[in-house]
Amino acid sequence: MPRLQHGSRRDAVIVGSGPNGLTAAVLLARAGWSVQVLEAASASGGGCRTEELTLPGFLHDICAAVHPTAALSPAFADLGLERFGLSWVRASVPLAHPLPDGEVAVLRRSVEATAHSLDGDGPAWRALLEPFSDPAFLRSLLGPAWRRGGVSLLRRARFGRFALRSCEHVVQGCFRGASAQALFGGCAAHSGHGLDRAGTAAFGMVLALAGHVVDWPCVRGGSGQLIRALEQALAHHGGTIQTGRRISAWQDLPETTAVLFDLSPRQVAAICGDALPSGYRSRLQSYRHGPGVFKVDWALDGPIPWRNPECAGAMVVHVGGTFAEVAHAEHQVMSGRTSETPFVLVAQQSVFDTSRSPAGRQTGWAYCHVPNGSKEDMTFRIEAQVERFAPGFRDQILARHSISPIRLEGHNAAMIGGDIGGGRNDLRQFLFRPTPRLDPYTTPNPRIFICSSATPPGGGVHGMCGYHAAQSVMNRWP
Length: 478
What we know:
By secondary structure, the chain is an alpha/beta fold. The protein has helices spanning 19-30, 68-72, 74-79, 111-116, 122-129, 135-140, 153-163, 167-174, 178-188, 200-213, 224-236, 265-272, 278-285, 323-334, 379-389, 405-411, 427-431, 464-476, and strands spanning 11-15, 34-38, 50-51, 60-61, 88-89, 93-98, 104-107, 218-219, 240-242, 258-261, 292-300, 314-319, 344-347, 362-370, 397-403, 448-450. The strands form four sheets. A seven-stranded mixed sheet has the order 7-6-12-13-14-11-15, sandwiched between helices. It has a five-stranded parallel sheet with strand order 9-2-1-10-16, covered by helices on one side. Strand 1 (11-15), helix 1 and strand 2 (34-38) form a beta-alpha-beta unit.
């Protein structure tokens, strides 16, 4: 693909075909660029794929499964992915968090309904979340600060007053009851960071708010259908995808106007070599990754037999007990140890999407955090935690499929050590990923851009990293 002369059509190569890379590709192709996506694996999608991992007829999401930020994403809305087959499935409630005493904390579709169920903590839940519970504000958070238009500085400051704190600080300062503490803490634990660390409250706030504003839906037919929609949108605008094309060095790439990497910063540094200045390359090489995950998928003979029936109507169930138990499990991971009683995120998509399993049967999807690159098998501990809140669960298992952090990295090389979040979420790196730079999607080389979840707004299936990166490309090469 020869580089086009000045004044002719611009061309771009995107290396990596996760949701961010494909979103960038579609946006550039729609703007008239000639676009080619190069993917090392045999299929596109990165961590957003669906396969029969256990038994025939049981569809399992390999990694990404439930998508509050995707339903909220301005990128996917702008690209009109519903026209290309994307369809959402919603549950009765986004999230349930069972407690050891048999009670359950439930994140409902409105702040008011949730607050009403939290007894004495209802006013505190309203005070914390209601000022920010609208789509415009949440969408303003999906990008770098300098591109967040339409939201006042005062409102951002009010949000930051709580979001920049630790989850532990917010929980102890705002809530007195076990239900509100566990509900908020479980949302914050998606950060994969110690809940006593600054900035973890932001994850609790954003995920709780997303449940109130847009729900926590799954994709009908599996998360891979979101990738199919992006692929069809790209083809519609004239872009192409080449799978089985591994890029190991800068010389492997065609000469184009721009190259966008949907890869980890370390991979970008290794591939680009001397095409990037040594100082910047060194900063990419020192990018820190978060904990890994150990994941289990189940083919089940029926629904998970939750002790509290309210869990049966939730798309996601946070299994870990009280806030203190969840915080302790995540602290152990941050200290380099696996937990005997891990915090487990369970999704039960097939209860609400019947296309995912044979009639009368169900799928189960779950993971817990483990130290990056851990080789420890967590299958039994994950199942023991589910059994704790759903007696008889093990009797429902027809088949299981476990994925260790190393196997996850083998599935998607950008998930270094099983890190599914695109990097460690300590406050400094979360605010200035991948390195401190006014436009984090650019590099010192005017042709090289980064569009992975190592750029703002970080992990999750929302395409916004690719969306903003494509805008940076078009700004540099108008």
